[in-house]
Design a protein that fits this description.
Layout lengths: L1 E3 L16 H10 L2 E9 L17 H25 L5 E7 L5 H12 L6 E4 L3 E2 L2 E2 L4 H10 L4 H19 L3 E2 L21 H16 L3 E5 L1 H4 L9 H10 L3 E5 L12 H10 L4 E8 L2 E8 H7 L4
Parallel strand pairs: 1-2, 2-3, 3-4, 4-7, 7-8, 8-9
Antiparallel strand pairs: 5-6, 10-11
Helix pairs in contact: 3-5, 5-6
Length: 305
Amino acid sequence: MAFTMHSHSGQFCPGHALNTLEEIILHAISLGYRTIGLTEHMPRTSLSDLYPEELLPSPEQTLASLFPRHEAYLLEATRLQSKYSNQIHILIGFEGEWIRGEEYAPLIKSLAGHEKMDYWIGSLHHTKGIPIDFDREMYLQAVEACGGTEDGLWAEYFDEQYQMLTQLKPKVVGHFDLIRLFSSEPSKQLQGTSSLLWEKVIRNLKVIKEYDGWLELNTSAFRKGLEEGYPKEEIVKEWIEEFGGKMTFSDDSHGIKQVGTNYLKGLEYLQGLGVKEVWTLERTKEGLVDKSVSIEEFRGCLRLL
């Protein structure tokens, strides 16, 4: 069975994505998906956390819209879950934000506790409160805030990720090394060349393994021009070979044009690193259970155009 555990719509992420939630689900069905995880971005709580694209018509108006939009998302996701239950298994979730832990940890716990929520993705899009995946300019601002070096920024990113992992234990850890996106050296080797950063990676992987979390293979790295997926090869190999960890699989789509993008490349990437299966969630009479899907079965379900 083919699936994604990470997706967004223009309906509930306006300015950031395209198409309605229903259009995305219908397109996923046409491509052979059997499961889709809906994971719109969680509401944020401060004007300083808005992206440049969200400042119009006014920052205050945007901020005031975020919580009502989240409630509208849950209602629509529940409707579609029922409407298409015979065609695709719909999981309802959200993508978390760890901008300021003391502020966002209680909010994430509250959102995750909603009766309709199946899971959530633990992601970092900020370091020192500065977006690190919006553009190169903001990435460099984050570098300066972390002492002026990329190694300093990466170290802070993995430290903030560690705080999120230990406090909240997300089932799915989103794009583990997103910090690479605007780096001057996105494929730099950490093992053996940057011992401090590698130690932080190992520390974080150990935490994820201890609570039985999953690393997401996120194929959006390929469409954004990176040679390796998220996570990079050395991290996937360490996770599989040394920790016996589990991988899940996502397109991180932001509209129908990105559903399934680079999926065959992503599957080949994992197979080349010795991964034989990926994991998703399945709803049973007993509740949600972990479900293993072989790479071959996954590939065989796809009807990519």
